[in-house]
Automatic annotation (TrEMBL):
Family in the record: Belongs to the AOR/FOR family.
SMART domains for the chain: AFOR_N
Pfam families tied to this protein: AFOR_C, AFOR_N
Protein origin, superkingdom: Bacteria
Lineage: Bacteria, Candidatus Macinerneyibacteriota, Candidatus Mcinerneyibacteria, Candidatus Mcinerneyibacteriales, Candidatus Mcinerneyibacteriaceae
This protein's record includes keyword Acyltransferase: no
GO molecular function, one term: metal ion binding
Organism expressing this protein natively: Candidatus Mcinerneyibacterium aminivorans
Protein name (database record): Aldehyde:ferredoxin oxidoreductase
Keywords: 4Fe-4S, Iron, Iron-sulfur, Metal-binding, Oxidoreductase
All copies of domain Aldehyde ferredoxin oxidoreductase N-terminal, residue ranges: 22-242
Necessary cofactors: [4Fe-4S] cluster; tungstopterin
Presence of keyword 4Fe-4S: yes
Length: 714
């Protein structure tokens, strides 16, 4: 197949060592005219935007204008690690951050992903990769860090679906069949689903030496894979052979080792006593969410389901391969990236084949499983596999399928409209068939694959459905489908989802346990403070090429005795020490937060530049805030009646369920608006949700172009 490649462009560059975490240059590739060049990274760029997502967003800001759509050539796929990314002494340091204008939201989406590509890109010489333009035919872009060369090829014969394509690419670009040569090749690809659906994801392929095969990690949210395939990118390849633990050339390598050794020891000692990530990954969350009535069930109507033991840690601990070490980057002792080996597929084009399934993680399980009335762990694993190889986001797929099933139950959809598919709750065959249709670009799958916001418009216009009802049950905000936590009983999590700049993804603010279970943030002021701090702190990981899990999924033994256990301050200090040790800087806690605050506010402004970044965009789906149907109210009638009495001083006796529901919705929206006011004030934003000019100057985001843009929206 490699012999059929047609070389379109080749560019050689000077190989240079990383200097204290930075290359001080980025790589630009334009597929419309095959231009390849490097761009300098200034000290101001490092000061204002740090790295990782900050660099991605800055490059995207410079590339787009107010009218740029996701499928315009000017849109970009940007990938970066960050100054800490790529070290091997501390767990969870192999992440890359992908940023683009999303097909479903129309604003920037960012997705944090494991695998080797981010670190290899960095060690090959570049702090970020910026891909713009559109190719005429399928292309592969190869960054050869060994030779100091970047090439663009037409690639007509390789497969599209990722579990095959990644294997082909590693065979083609590795120097030999030696496993260590294969390890030196990292890939990025999408799949057939990304060609036809707007919820496409990217697969970052790595060669797993112990398993002698390829594994895939996903940049899942917001349609990154859709943009990738729209640009006719078949794959990105990065080759880097000379990996060592000191490729970042840190200013203080001994300090990096010391902090890393302390954390690695903590993981080994504490993980077996805490969440057992090394054995079950994030599947341990499933029974916990179910126990606390927080597991989304039947399109977020309910919070519990029977049979959860078949799709939680109990089931997957037996299914996961426990014979080989896991992890998506070297040196990660948390090793949560589990696989199911020799899994025999029941449906689709690979029916009967035995494959490797990467995962599933909690979000996938909850989304394609209980939220659709499904609790069969093997069926969920099959959906996980096909979503990955097709390049489909499992979270969006699960949430939009639950919406489809809800529409079926309410008579909006029938067999005539779905092409014969019966979307009763729990019908996994219909769910998988719709997924296969997305990959083939056929049938009802082509409608559903465009996401919930599109379906709401389509069902109202073409089927005469009640748009208000669709808005009430269609779990999307800003065009992005919700991830898998029941927020309607946690006002802090409602804000965590709906105020999230890119749309309702839990990686920006996961507050549901603090708020609903532990009651650590009882007042509006407490909740606003949490909605200020945690979205900022969680941004840190994407600035630096880090995984969130080592921060709070393994905690110090004495963490519960600290003043604020939720912040895990000892680990926050670890990250600050590592940053200083790598870069030679000496930032304190205040400057650490300012690093984050600059990029966080910048992303809000970039979203505003592209059309969404004001108060009206932060309301989200009503079901994320309140029960919206009589059925929902009745399911928790005793609880909701008690709330009317105790929280609102309203006697529900003598009121119909419909009347009680109406009052509940009204009162909850009043609370939500108050939370919005308090949170915007704490963030230093206007009452319309726009960062104030004085806030931007205070945090050091005083770039004239940005200040002038913000002034227009004060």
């Amino acid at each position: 197949m490699k012999k059929k490649h047609k070389l379109l462009a080749s560019w050689s560059y000077e190989k240079k060592p990383v200097e204290k975490g930075y290359n001080n240059r980025t790589l630009y590739v334009n597929l419309s005219d095959n231009e390849i060049k490097e761009k300098p990274v200034s000290e101001e760029m490092k000061e204002k935007f740090t790295g990782g997502k900050g660099f991605d967003l800055k490059l995207l800001w410079d590339a787009v204008d107010e009218n740029t759509g996701w499928d315009d050539p000017e849109n970009e796929i940007n990938i970066a690690a960050g100054p800490i990314g790529g070290i091997t002494q501390y767990p969870g340091t192999g992440k890359a951050i992908v940023t683009t204008v999303s097909p479903t939201t129309g604003i920037p989406i960012d997705s944090n992903v494991g695998g080797y590509f981010g670190p290899y890109l960095k060690f090959s010489g570049f702090d970020a990769l910026e891909v713009q333009g559109k190719a005429e035919k399928d292309v592969i872009v190869c960054i050869d860090g060994d030779e100091g060369k970047v090439e663009i090829f037409e690639a007509p014969e390789e497969e599209i679906n990722s579990h095959i394509l990644a294997e082909q690419l590693i065979e083609e670009f590795a120097d030999s069949d030696d496993p260590y040569d294969k390890k030196a090749v990292a890939t990025v690809s999408a799949g057939k689903g990304s060609e036809n659906a707007w919820i496409g994801c990217l697969n970052f392929g790595l060669y797993d030496i112990p398993r002698r095969g390829v594994r895939l990690k996903q940049a899942g949210r917001g349609g990154t894979g859709t943009v990738f395939r729209d640009k006719k990118i078949k794959a990105l390849v990065c080759k880097y052979s000379d990996l060592s633990g000191m490729d970042n050339n840190p200013a203080d390598p001994e300090k990096v080792r010391k902090v890393g050794q302390k954390m690695q020891k903590e993981v080994i000692e504490q993980d077996p006593k805490q969440k057992r990530m090394r054995r079950v990954g994030t599947t341990h969350i499933v029974p916990i969410m179910n126990e606390y009535d927080l597991l989304p069930t039947r399109n977020f109507k309910y919070g519990q389901i029977e049979g959860v033991e078949n799709c939680g840690e109990e089931a997957y601990e037996k299914m996961f391969d426990q014979e080989h070490p896991d992890g998506c980057w070297f040196g990660c002792t948390i090793a949560c990236a589990h696989t199911i080996e020799e899994f025999e597929l029941k449906t689709g084009p690979y029916k009967g084949e035995k494959v490797r399934v990467d995962g599933p993680e909690y979000e996938t399980i909850a989304g394609v499983g209980p939220n659709c009335g499904i609790t069969d762990g093997e069926i969920i694993a099959e959906m996980n596999f096909y979503c990955d190889t097709y390049g489909l986001d499992t979270i969006s797929f699960g949430t939009l399928t639950a919406f489809v099933m809800d529409c079926w139950e309410n008579g909006i959809l029938d067999e005539e409209k779905t092409g014969g598919l019966k979307f009763e709750w729990g019908n996994w065959k219909a769910s998988l068939e719709m997924m296969h249709q997305m990959a083939k670009g056929e049938g009802f799958g082509t409608i559903a694959g465009k996401g919930i916001l599109y379906m709401k418009e389509y069902f109202a216009e073409n089927y005469g459905a009640d748009r208000e009802f669709l808005d009430n049950i269609g779990m999307e905000c800003k065009g992005l489908e919700y991830s898998q936590y029941m927020s309607k009983e946690s006002i802090a999590q409602q804000g965590g989802y709906n105020f999230a700049i890119k749309g309702p993804q839990h990686d920006e603010a996961w507050l549901i346990f603090m708020d609903q279970v532990q009651n650590r943030i009882p007042t509006y002021e407490d909740k606003a403070e949490a909605l200020y701090y945690f979205p900022l702190w969680r941004t840190w990981f994407s600035l630096h090429g880090l995984c969130k899990l080592p921060w709070n999924d393994v905690e110090p033994a004495d963490n519960d005795e600290t003043d604020d256990p939720a912040k895990v301050e000892e680990h926050v200090e670890n990250y600050r020490e590592i940053f200083n040790a790598i870069t030679g800087k000496n930032i304190d806690k205040k400057e650490q937060m300012l690093q984050i605050e600059r990029v966080y506010n910048f992303q809000r402004l970039l979203s505003l530049k592209l059309g969404k970044g004001q108060r009206k965009d932060d309301y989200g789906c009503p079901r994320s805030i309140t029960p919206v149907t009589v059925e929902e109210y009745k399911s928790r009638e005793e609880r909701y009646d008690k709330q009317l009495k105790e929280e609102y001083d309203i006697d529900p006796s003598g009121m119909s369920v419909e009347e009680k529901l109406e009052v509940t919705i009204e009162k909850r929206m009043e609370k939500y608006n108050r939370l919005m006011d308090e949170t915007y004030a704490r963030k230093g934003w206007t009452n319309d949700g726009v960062p104030k000019v004085e806030t931007l100057k205070k945090i050091g985001l005083d770039i004239p172009e940005i200040i002038e843009f913000a002034k227009k929206h004060q």
